[in-house]
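User: I'll paste a sequence; please echo it back and then give the predicted structure.

Assistant: Echoing your sequence first, then the prediction.
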Amino acid sequence: MIAAMPSRTSIWSWALFQGGRDPYIILITIYVFAPEWALIACGFLAAVTVTAAYSSNRTMLTRVVPADKIGVFFGLFVIAGTATMWLGPMLVELATDASGSQRVGLLPLSGLLAAGLMALSFVQPERSRQELTL
């Protein structure tokens, strides 16, 4: 006799409708499906924030950079983006291999974000705008 495994949607609907009288069945079902929903929610949040950051950083670059050097700064912007595209995963791999833990392996990303925040703290958009108008 071959037993067929029910799909996740059928388990979910059974837990809500037929087994909904028992709170433990609902809690177990939420425990099983919550990580997937959390991953989807985090992916959605990351997509929204990265899109906003990507569009706003180019706008800020055009406002801060002198008009005669805009090509140079956009080139530097592209090189920095290309460097971080391979630097981040490489640092995560090295830290994960060295520590044997994925949690510790993600710490270099915090360091990269902190370095970017420190570098951004030196940008003075108001002063740059005044120099552009003069």
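The helical segments are 8-18, 23-64, 70-99, 102-105, 107-121, 125-133. The CA atoms of residues 15 and 27 lie 9 Å apart.
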